[in-house]
Design brief:
This protein is of the alpha/beta class. Helices cover about 35% and strands about 30% of the residues. The protein is built from seven helices and ten strands. The strands form two sheets. Strands 6-7-8-3-9-10 form a six-stranded mixed beta sheet. Strands 2-1-4-5 form a four-stranded antiparallel beta sheet, with helices on one face.
């Protein structure tokens, strides 16, 4: 068993049956090591978002095997997958999905409260630590709707970190940001990787972002076209 491999796919294929049969992914196999910063790229329709949904356990209808921390996901029940999502996976999306009438602090605490591993006071302390890490400690008691777009995305990253996930998945995390804030988000991911050995996997259309990651996986028409080490 290789403890350095955090995520592995073995000949993963995905079919859509309605309205017609269509194969969206074809025998996708790769391994991602703990602490890697990886991008997945490809044109629209290449299958990258479909793959991300499979990897993050949001879609369980596929052929082949997906393993997180050497655990095969296809053997897990819905409740077990929900537990893996809560405990081992952090999500950062194109849109931050913060609850606008909740404070920034409350938004960050939500996944940890749902997981129920710590009491509320401990979770609050952890949330403040994540917000401080992302330069938002002074914004904690503001309503999420009062933050700028860049601040909201940083708050979303803090929320993704609250349960100390094994891997962070990003779905176009800079797609709704200007170039300055996009660079800030990239720099935050890089800092998390270097300081905490955080594993990060990002689906992106941003060529500059992808070209600055450690590794770039390119999909085309549902197939793995290339897998390049960039650093």
């Amino acid at each position: 068993m290789n403890s350095d491999i955090i995520l592995e796919t073995r000949a993963v294929s995905k079919f859509f049956r309605d309205p017609v049969d269509f194969q969206a992914l074809k025998d996708i196999s790769f391994k991602i090591s703990r602490g890697q910063f990886v991008s997945i790229v490809g044109s629209s329709g290449s299958g990258k978002s479909t793959l991300l949904y499979l990897l993050s356990t949001l879609d369980t209808d596929y052929e082949g095997e997906i393993l997180i921390d050497n655990e095969p996901l296809h053997e897990k029940s819905k409740n077990q997958l929900a537990e893996i999502r809560n405990e081992k996976i952090g999500f950062v999306f194109q849109f931050h999905y913060l609850l606008p009438e909740f404070t920034v602090l409350d938004n960050v605490m939500l996944p940890a409260l749902k997981l129920g591993k710590y009491d509320e006071d401990t979770i609050r302390k952890h949330a403040y630590e994540k917000l401080d890490l992302l330069g938002l400690g002074d914004q904690a008691i503001k309503k999420a709707s009062k933050l700028s777009g860049g601040q909201q995305q940083r708050a979303a990253i803090a929320r993704a970190l609250i349960n100390n996930p094994s891997i962070i998945f990003g779905d176009e995390p800079t797609g709704n940001l200007d170039s300055k804030n996009a660079q800030t988000v990239f720099d935050i991911f890089r800092e998390l990787q270097l300081a905490f050995n955080q594993t990060i996997l990002v689906v992106t259309h941003d060529a500059q972002f992808a070209g600055s990651t450690d590794r770039r996986i390119t999909l085309k028409d549902g197939e793995l076209l290339s897998d390049e080490m960039l650093k």
